[in-house]
Write a structure and sequence with these properties.
serine O-acetyltransferase activity, alpha/beta, 14 strands, five-stranded parallel beta sheet, UDP N-Acetylglucosamine Acyltransferase, domain 1, 39% helix, serine acetyltransferase, domain 1, 2 domains, six-stranded mixed beta sheet
Amino acid sequence: MSLAAPSRSRVSDLLWVRLCQEAEKILRSEPVLGGFVYASILAQPSLEAALLHRLAERLGTAAGGLSEQLLQKVVAGDNSFGHAVRLDLLAFLDRDPATSSALTPFLYFKGFQALQTHRIAHALWKAGRRDFALHLQDRASEVFQVDIHPAVPIGLGIFVDHATGISVGETATIGDNVSLLQGVVLGPSENDRAGRHPRIGNGVMIGAGARILGGITVGRCSRVGAGSVVVEDVPPNVTVAGIPARIVGNAGCAEPSRVMDQMFYDVGL
């Protein structure tokens, strides 16, 4: 079974063309990976199909019944999925200095793959297929060490770097163009079922190991320092750090999630 025709043709979808070109380059430089790269990219009809093939390969288990065809059925006809995938992939290219090719995060980075698995699980959750959504969450947690509840809405252009140990609770929300590093926890601090987890605004950067706890808001284009514990609302365009976190200056730039500068020298201490 193939996916419904994507909104862009293979010729006009420049990101898909780039992936195919990079795959062909690997075929020439690393023949030992030829079968893997061909099956993962060059044998696929679209970027969406290639991604679902890779996710099924990573997540599938005989007992769980996950398959490429099953994942295809979930996203078939949903053009918003392909749009989100492309913006996330561009975010990796834009923000990660270790990423020189689009194929690298697409095939190998668990942060990118865990994020796309969550997008599928979230679609299932919204459609009322909650057991299937929770199964995908469980598989992603086991395979990628990223645990995001399928109820969590996540915006576009998200960068998840390294990813190990990320945990996001059920009532959290994450806006557009957010960057998260490994070990980030968006957790609860109380038993208010309606909104016990944080709300992360657009353009926020959250450093490695940060804990943001409770039904608080982190304002747009703010930075959370690595290892910080945030238990109060964070205004827009500031940097917070410490245990408990406090404001240590401004955000240092207009788009901290894109610049990915985690130093404090530019915040006006």
